[in-house]
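Cross-check.
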Amino acid sequence: MLVPVDLGQLANSEHAIETAVWLARQAGASLTILTVANPLGIAFSDMPEDKKPDFEAFVAKMSDRHDFDISPLFRSHESVKYAIRQAIEDENIDLVVMATHDPRLTDHLFGSRSSETALHNDCSILILRDN
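Predicted model, tokenized:
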């Protein structure tokens, strides 16, 4: 089972993580949390690998909070949808659980990451709307 999260929106992903932990317990499945950092960063001085320790600490915190073994998966790629697809293939993922937000205008025109994930992968996708 895979939960993709955005490094800039980690708090928004907690509902998806909580849901994924519950499902993984019921199914006896393993759980991985994925984040994707842009290899070019946001600013010239950004180094994506600098964000890895914070991400791993977040995953450890979620693992402790839910008393469930969760594996971190940190990828660096300019395309989030490609990195998610590669993680699904590399990790033999059967189910992706991901949070989404209320659609913005650009989502109606170009689609959101959750819609891209649902449309372009062969595994099951559970998309959870923000509360």
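The longest strand covers residues 31-37. The mean pLDDT is 81. Passed to J.P. for a second look.
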